[in-house]
Amino acid sequence: MSAVKDLIGQAVDRLGDELEALSRQIHDNPELAYQEVKAAGWLSDFLAQQGFKVERGVAGVETAFRGTIETGQGPTIAILCEYDALPQIGHACGHNVIATAGAGAGAALAAVRERLPKGRIQVIGTPAEEGGGGKVKLIQGGVFRDVDAAMMIHGFDRWILHQDLLGIVRVGFEFSGKAAHASADPWEGVNALDAVIQTFNNVSMLRQQMRPDARIHGIVTHGGAAPNIIPEMAACTFYVRAAKLDYMWELHRRVVACAEGAARATGCTLSTIDKEAPYEPLKRNDTLLDLFRANMQAVGAQELPAPDRLGSSDIGNVSQVIPAIQPMVQIAPSGTPIHSRAFEAAAVTPLARQGMCQAAKTMAMTTYDLLADPGLVKRARAEFDART
Ligand SMILES: [Zn+2]
Ligand SMILES: [Zn+2]
Q: Closest-lying ligand to the alpha carbon of 80?
């Protein structure tokens, strides 16, 4: 390993106690989407102490931040932090570790600043991953416009280099009909609940022709007021998920067509409501992953195969605009599911500290590799452009 990488490792080890304390502080003060005032403040303070120029509140998002270190004309590499918690079960997704691994990587690079090749390092605080799509707002606000490559890690029960993430688009359907007495003069009514039921039936038929890695799941959110009234209004919400962006939107179009057909068949009028920003699938980048893997092995972490369970995250949206990766880092004993109380407890154990420090080192070393050889940044971009 190069001398600079040795120094990066030593810097993280030196900061280990401080990073662990910061991780625990965020963990013990869970804040929900867009309310992460304390976490964003503590992380910004920490980065400022390490020599970063810190902007608090970027792209009009109060709990987003951006710390920058510039050593000259060269590529811009971003390391992303998440720090939002879940309702009721706190940091059961371990975002306290994502935050401190990212801040720790930035701090280690700041510590070797004099020896860094020319370029720009940004540690970007991205709120509201668990709902609200913080990264989507930051993309729209231009935060990633000048970034050449981005990386972050996520806590898990083992080390995985790449885990596919499904894109998700959430759509609501509201059907309007006409109320009437359901027994005395039902022929006067137009039944909005029938349109909801027909939508579900249409989607059920569509499902047989779907690709196996896509998912459609829905609930009825409004089904009428009383059985003796023909429902004049009924509504449902569907989530449509797929591994490829084109296919996600194709399925979305077909689900909307299912609802339109149901409206036509029942004589209802339909309004389609877009719920939240879509989360896009994670676009793989092997150029970045290969660098990450080599550094991960150098810090003693062992990669395991990815399970076939599939979730969604707004890092997917970032990976659709620039090369970006999100390896999984072991912070909990094998078999501990995320979003569980056991995972929340694990996120502040010595195992979590070890994963956080190894992840901080790996991300800092990978950033160093990219700055040291801008040809790698170009290669990551070429791969990004070539992959759908
Ligand atoms: Zn989560
Ligand atoms: Zn998470």
A: 2
- The DSSP element (H or E) to which 31 belongs, if any, is none
DSSP secondary structure of 303-365: B-PPPS--B--THHHHHTTS-EE--EEE-S-TTPPTTSHHHHHHTTSHHHHHHHHHHHHHHHH
CATH number at residue 224: 3.30.70.360
Ligand with the closest atom to the CA of 315: 2
Q: Where is 214: in which H helix or E strand?
A: none
pLDDT digits (tens, 9 = 90+) for 168-195: 999 999 999 999 999 999 999 999 999 9
- Amino acid (1-letter code) at residue 253: R
Instruction: Write the DSSP symbol of residue 161.
Output: S
Ion ligand 1: residue ranges with CB closer than 5 A: 93
Shortest-distance ligand to the CA of residue 337:
1
The pLDDT tens digits for 203-247 are: 999 999 999 989 999 999 999 999 999 999 999 999 999 999 999
One domain, residues 199 and 121: no
Q: Which domain holds residue 176?
A: 167-279
- Pair 70, 184 in one domain: no
Domains contained in the chain, number: 2
In the numeric block, the tokens 């909801």 are attached to: 196
pTM of the model: 0.91
Instruction: Give the distance between the most distant pair of CA atoms in the chain.
Output: 86
